[in-house]
Design goal:
about 140 residues; 7 helices; disordered N terminus; mainly alpha
Length: about 140
């Protein structure tokens, strides 16, 4: 039940539109889903491929049959993974000025921008730092 409070706090952060919304990696989401919904997934979604939203669709389709922990958490976990994916796309916009200043010569698509920004983490803007954290590239 401790995690219910964690997920609810994360959803409040997402709903409030804060700059630092709670995000989780796919590995963390899988762990949270296993913790809160493992038995439900085994019972209701057995044999489904884990990718392409099939687990979420199965849980949503069987909403009336979910355990209380799974019912309270599965949507929040999905939202946090979507927030992480959105944050990863947003990094390049938020950090563009920092990239130009601290990583001259690097252009989007060359794969080195995030590494350069992380190396310059002590001097990049607060917005860029927050964006890198939300994207899961670094921790505060």
């Amino acid at each position: 039940m401790k995690r219910v409070g964690f997920v609810l706090a994360a959803l409040l952060a997402l709903a409030g539109g804060q700059a630092e919304a709670q995000t989780v990696s796919y590995a963390q989401a899988a762990g949270l889903l296993a913790q809160h919904c493992g038995d439900d997934i085994m019972k209701l979604c057995r044999g489904l491929n884990l990718g392409n939203g099939a687990i979420h669709a199965c849980l949503a389709q069987n909403a009336g049959h979910l355990s209380p922990a799974c019912a309270a958490n599965h949507e929040g976990i999905r939202q946090m993974t979507e927030a992480r994916a959105a944050a990863q796309k947003e990094v390049y916009k938020v950090c563009d000025r920092d990239r130009a200043q601290y990583c001259p010569g690097l252009v989007p698509g060359d794969g080195n921008i995030v590494s350069c920004l992380l190396e310059a983490s002590k001097v990049v803007s607060g917005a860029c730092t927050a964006s890198l954290v939300n994207a899961g590239y670094t921790q505060q």
